[in-house]
Amino acid sequence: MTAEKSGTTGRRSGAETRADGTGAKNPPDDAAGAGPGSGSPDERASGADSSGEDDTAGTVTSAGKAKRTRKARRTGAAKAAGTASTADKTSTADKAGAGTDKAEAGAEAGTEAEARDRADAAKKDGDAAEKSDAAKQDGTGDDEPADPWSAFGPAPEPVLGRPRRAVRAVGRFLVHEWTLAVVAALALAAAMTWPTLRYPRHTLPQDYWDPSLQAWQMAWSGHILRTNPAQLWHSNTFYPENWSFAFSDTLLGYAPAGLIGVGPEHAVLRYNIMFVLAHALAAFGAYALARQLGAGRIGGAVAGASFAYAPWLLAQAGHLHIISNGGIPLALAMLARGHGWSLRYGYRPRRRHAGWAFAGWLVAAWQLSLGFGIGLPFAYMLAGVVLVSVVLWFVRRRKVKRPFGRRLFLADVLGGLVFAAVGAALAVPYFKVAELHPNAERTIGDIGLYSPPASGFFTAPAESRVWGGLHEGARAVLPWHPEMTLLPGFVLYALAAGGLFFSVWRVRHRIFLLAGVLVTMALAMGTRFFGGRFTYVPLFDYLPGWSGLRTPGRMMLWTTLLLGLLAAGAVTAFCMRVRELAAERVPPWPGPWLRLATLLPLALVLVEGLNATPQPVVPRQPAALRTVDGPMLVLPSSQNLDQPVMLWSTDRFQPMVNGGSGFTPRSQARIREATVSFPDYASVDYLRQIGVKNVVVLRDELEGTPWEGMLDRPVDALGVAREQVGEAVVFRL
């Protein structure tokens, strides 16, 4: 019984071994305790019988092991084949792990040698599956082996040659935001100032008086820089006066343009080109400032268009030194960029750039060189900003680590010195003129004559295509409507008002902008705002140079800029909201139409800026002005008549008594009075004493002037030669 039981146990053990497919290295517990020399004699006898049964069972177990080994091999091969067939469905790591599991199973089922053989076979099966997977991934199939270098990463990008790099750089430049902004500003300026460029050699915008003077200024500065720069301030006009180039704003910053071309025709062409470019720079500068402060592209475009094409500026079309204001917002944008500051995001030290700050000071100095009419308030504004910045830096220097970098500090110091030096150099001639000509200084009475009432802020000039005709009655009650029609645009008013409540600017910034609008409006009213006792008059009395500004209404330039920034904040917030709505729409087809609606404020601002500016033909230059030497006098002579004469002198720049500016020198007034009776002994003698050699009389201009009938007077006893040169009569003294 014991033997049977033992055999049964052995068979069961073998059966169990076959059932789990692993095999047992250790014998069962009941056989382990029946060794020779253990237990009683009876137990040893039983143990002998049992050992026989165990041997039989062991033989059966060995046969089962061999059978299971063969089965394990077949099973491993089948699994390896199955693994290879499904290599595209499993990862390489899973296949390697499966091969390892097979090796361990084989090691437990047989001897160590067999286990090693089975492990090698499984490893080979795993490698084959991995190679098959790599071949499928590489797309080489079973016929072509995989690239052995693909395991090291993708191939490097090809190195571009210099021509292709240049083409790529040019392409990036052409599609850059600022390139597109410049092109758009130029195209818009040509369209909004049309028909200025229709006949640019023969017509001038608005009239041919002040534009003729300014065309001569650019021509003179270019001519004298090319010939004798030391005589810059002693021009060929207002003979025999010195410092005559400082009798009005000089547009000296345009001197490089004056180096190109000679004569009246080129001077007119130059003026028209600079007129269009001034509008483009104004739009671009205001756009750059709004973008730097945190406005979006469309918001910045609204700020630029409203600043450059405000209706009130149409009345200033004959004053290039007022139209040339784009350097103001551009310099402010550069300075803000250099100092890492914006209205929307505050102070960001990592965005500081000393180069931009220094460039901003240079642009500010260039703007100042165009004239003190708008440059002087700009200079005082910059001085105020510097003072406030110094105070804030002193207060916050312990709270913010390195709030002001060393390089930026040096850039500001050097740039500020350049700006101050340019201002001082330009101020010297004007102080000299004020000393030599006390009648050139303005009085409070003069300021009162040009101070507009509050209704002027809602009245458009006659040059406005949209509002000019509708506001004719309102203009009729203004004492001097060319300087009192100050409408910046009703659309701009509406957008700025909306920007007080719906904007990307913080509430405190909106309040500051509104305060700036109100303060500049009060200054623009001059003595009309409570007599100017708390606004314009203190500036007139105590700020050096302020007494030379006779037209307070030009402070509207700052009002327009601040209103444009308020409007830019509102339009930017509106565009952001439109993008959110377009993204939420399902289906998204209304999105483009919603985005197109964001251009409506810009379109309305531009429509209000459409012009009806006249383009009169410039009087043709008399032939005598091309041949007669100076010093000379052209009759008849007056403020308006002398300005075209200045333009005609750009062929040879002969010294001449004629000249037009913001005031009339006493010497010129005396000459005009003395020559009313010309030609007679007294007038001829006086002209000879001051050095005048020739007198040119324009026959077609005499009618209705004090010199009418002078050509009928005899000259035989005066020692004067009379000669007909074209349409003019020349008296050679």
Automatic annotation (TrEMBL):
Q: Where is the composition biased (Low complexity)?
A: 77-112
| Basic and acidic residues compositional bias, start-end | 113-136
Chain residue ranges for the region called Disordered: 1-160
Q: Does the keyword Membrane apply?
A: yes
Q: List the biased-composition ranges (Basic residues).
A: 65-76
| Name of this protein | ABC transporter permease
From the record, give the transmembrane residue ranges: 173-194, 269-289, 309-333, 354-372, 378-396, 408-431, 486-505, 512-536, 556-576
Is Transmembrane included in the keywords of this UniProt record?
Answer: yes
Compositional bias annotation for Polar residues: 1-11
